[in-house]
Amino acid sequence: MKRIGMGLIGPGFVAAHHIDAVRRLGDVDVVAIAGSSQESAERKARELKIDRAYGDFHALIADPDIQVIHNTTPNYLHLPVTLAALAAGKHVISDKPLALNPQEGRILRDAAVAAKVAHVVTFNYRGNPLVQQARAMIAKGQNGDVSFVHGHYLQDWMTDPNVYSWRSDPAKGGATSALGDIGSHWCDLAEHISGLKIVSVLADLTTVIPERYSTGASGEAFSAKRTGDKVPVTVQSEDLGSVLLHFDGGAKGCFSVGQVLPGHKNDLVLEVNGKLSSLKWKQEQQNELWIGHYDQANSLLAKDPSLVLPEAQRYTHLPGGHQESWADAFCNLMRDAYEWIHAGGAPEARPSMLPTFEDGYRSTCLVDAMLRSHVAGNVWQRVEFFPEAN
Ligand code: SOE
After folding, report:
1. Which residue ranges make up each domain of the chain?
2. Is the minimum distance from the CB of 221 to ligand 1 under 6 angstroms?
3. Ligand 1 test: best mutation among 179, 266, 269, most atoms within 8 Å of CB?
4. Is the CB of 182 under 6 A from ligand 1?
5. Is ligand 1 within 6 A of the CB of residue 266?
């Protein structure tokens, strides 16, 4: 069997999950890791049991044993790192958001298509078997025409003003916080499951905690509270927001995002109402799909390979009653990504579940429309998205 070498740039919170997922595939060699310095890269390499460490991402990209680059750097480095990897002809798996804004997102989408390599963005919730079940049910018309898509993605890890990371720094994280980090997942899932595209938005955004306290050190999501001298930092990006949505074909929708809502850990909920029946999926109870009816009892479909549609079966690995989880869904995304990579990244070989740089660019356009809507005084804005030129 042909083995594939991967290297990861940016060893933060999610890096360990990329490494864990590719190791589970069995035919991928984790060749090297690159960090912001040789010392930090070596420390992380020891922790993750990786042989090679680079203090410079260019050196990792130039490593001839590496065919796939995983970009898990902070958002502001997505563009230079991914462009360098594409220029070297490497396949790229990028964390979301793909880029800081639509201009950068479009550059990366176009560069990836021109490079004729596999290009994947980690909208990992698509990898859940019951997300694929919901998508397949809707595509087959089992729920009737979709009229309403709604839900939320709420977290609490930024509730404490002492939590400060690059995500709150516009130069490193971008102009948005909650929408870019988690609203992007929700919108991707809403479009992926419903099969519809969001065409216009009306957003109302808030910064609940406008002053945070920083040690000056770069932190990461879910980092523990730090002690020592801290300086107050003014935060402008939103940590709470609600958005009304119009989909193509006339369906309506709405969702809320928040990072400062005590008790909500990774509370992503998405409901789709069709004219015949409804579906609701909750990330924190990801092994169940609620099916709502008008003229019969509602039901809960358990994640069970013998009960789900064939489209979802390939993403279930354990019998019913054996719970699958966030890491399993993340691994499902990597399995499809490496299937595409084994096929050389040929467009026709891409598994249809897989989110590409096209989806990543689209997501930056959606968030941009929401930011424009808020700044314009909460008015409807069209999503400006330029499809790939043929
Ligand atoms: C932090 O909000 C975070 O780790 C996001 O960056 C991830 O994309 C999300 O899946 C979980 O929460």
Report:
1. 4-125+335-354, 126-322+365-374
2. yes
3. 266
4. yes
5. yes
Residue 155 beta carbon below 6 angstroms from any ligand 1 atom: yes
Mutate to test the pocket of ligand 1, among 78, 152, 181, 283 (most ligand atoms within 8 A of CB): 181
pLDDT by residue (tens digit) across 69-82? 999 999 999 999 99
Phi, then psi, of 43 in degrees rounded to 5: -60, -45
Is ligand 1 within 6 A of the CB of residue 257? Answer: no
Between strands 278-282 and 288-292, the pairing is: antiparallel
Contact (CB, 8 A) for 281 and 134? yes
293, 300 contact by CB (below 8 A): no
Strands (E), the chain: 4-9, 28-34, 52-54, 68-71, 91-94, 119-121, 146-154, 198-206, 211-214, 231-234, 240-247, 252-258, 267-274, 278-282, 288-292, 299-302, 381-382
pTM reported for the whole predicted model: 0.96
Decide: 270 in ligand 1 pocket, CB within 6 A. Answer: no
The pLDDT assigned to 1 comes to: 80
CATH code of the domain occupying 126-322+365-374: 3.30.360.10
pLDDT of residue 389: 76
Positions of the chain with pLDDT lower than 70, given as ranges: 217-228, 390
Q: Write the DSSP symbol of residue 281.
A: E
The CATH superfamily holding the domain 4-125+335-354 is NAD(P)-binding Rossmann-like Domain (3.40.50.720)
Q: Which two tokens stand for residue 28?
A: 């991928």
- Distance (Å) from CA 182 to ligand 1 centroid: 6
Q: Are 256 and 203 contacting, i.e. CB atoms less than 8 angstroms apart?
A: no
**Pocket flag, ligand 1, residue 363 (CB < 6 Å):** no
